[in-house]
Amino acid sequence: MSHHQLTRTEPFLFNTLAHLRRLASTDVAEARAMLGELLQVLAEALPSMREAQTPLSRELQLVRAYLGLHQRRMGESRLQQRFEVAPGLDAALLPSTTLLTLVENAVKHGLAPLVEGGEIAVRAEAREGRLLLEVADTGRGMGAGGGHGTGLANLRARLKALHGDAAELSLHLNEPRGLVARVCLPLT
């Protein structure tokens, strides 16, 4: 695990553990369920962070567990999730934590700041020999300097290192509100 990936994960872990501590004294069953999801996130994330690439199926398991944890923290009504994944892509390789990075940004910058929250849609499809991945949110959209954070900069660098100019990360406005982060890379 790189130092940066560990540093980026620290606030998430501390916030989750603090929430777990509060739940342990108020709702033991909910705390147990959340602890199970945290263990799943760690079991999926730690090996993935050591690898340059991971299969889409494994990345999706990580993202589902991560979003499950955030649903418990934010409330199900504030964080809805939808997955639209074309069949036959389970073994497709992508840089590890690609979708996780995009989902983290969608939660942190898009949905968490809004009282009403919103939805995150994760999409994957094959198109003309390429893997197209999207994370769309109905959050607050892109502010000044949007798209230039450390997580996205590191993801762009990893995409370039693995695929050169054959891969790209782009950001688009979502309708009626929010952002769509799109990664396109060779299908392997």
Question: What does this protein look like?
Answer:
The structure is a single chain. The protein has 188 residues and is of the alpha+beta class. It has one domain: Histidine kinase-like ATPase, C-terminal domain (Heat Shock Protein 90, 2-Layer Sandwich). The protein has five helices and seven strands, in the order ααβαββαββαββ. The strands form two sheets. Strands 2-4-5-7-6 form a five-stranded mixed beta sheet. Strands 1-3 form a two-stranded antiparallel ribbon. Strand 4 and strand 5 form a beta hairpin. It starts with a helix and ends with a strand. The N terminus is likely disordered.
List keywords for this structure.
globular, disordered N terminus, 50% helix, 5 helices, Heat Shock Protein 90, 188 residues, alpha+beta, single chain
